[in-house]
Amino acid sequence: MGVKNPWEPVQTYSNTQTPRLRRELSVNQGHKKDGSFGILTTQVNKLLDWSRSSSLWPATFGLACCAIEMMSASADRFDIARFGAEVFRASPRQADLMIVAGRCSVKMAPILRQIYDQMPEPKWVLSMGACASCGGVFNNYAIVQGVDKIVPVDVFVPGCPPTPDMLLFGLNELQRKIREHIPNPPDPLKDSGLKLVGPLGEEL
Ligand code: SF4
After folding, report:
1. Which residues, given as ranges, of the chain have pLDDT below 50?
2. How far is CA 69 from CA 37, 44, 158, in A?
3. Which of 99, 131, 133, 156 for mutating ligand 1's site (highest number of atoms within 8 Å of CB)?
4. Which residue's alpha carbon is nearest to atom 6 within ligand 1?
């Protein structure tokens, strides 16, 4: 009686939850949440570049197998909406990004250029895949050996076909170019003086 058991188990950890202490920032410790907007300083052109790069609207324009990968990029697994570019427009008048997804035939070249011309400024072009970028395996008379001979291409995405995440990486690079205010490359037709002509020789 009265002697303490030396082998009595010692409970180090409690199974009961200790109540959380209320953590409140004092007035002198940092910013107190009061619902106000605070102050943000920036430049108007930076704000415009940021908003343009975060809301690219691609023209719905798929030429070949690469277009399937482009469609996957807008589906739920890759979700191009995370980068604000999910609004594929059926009219070039409402689009500011042309994703050339697939090989472009010589017959299709004037139409591609016409769609590009109908897009309002500022606008950008992303060449998706080996065929669009350099003709790919189709080194023949029927396929344009790189759409940069027709339209100024801002970003080339390599691969046959490029995976949707490669397209997203290309999109991120384009966003970076827009935010850094890097201008479009020179227009190949305006610079060279070349003209696209239709099947009857009419100028397009
Ligand atoms: S790069 Fe490959 S996947 Fe893309 S259009 Fe050409 S052949 Fe098809």
Report:
1. none
2. 41, 36, 13
3. 131
4. 131
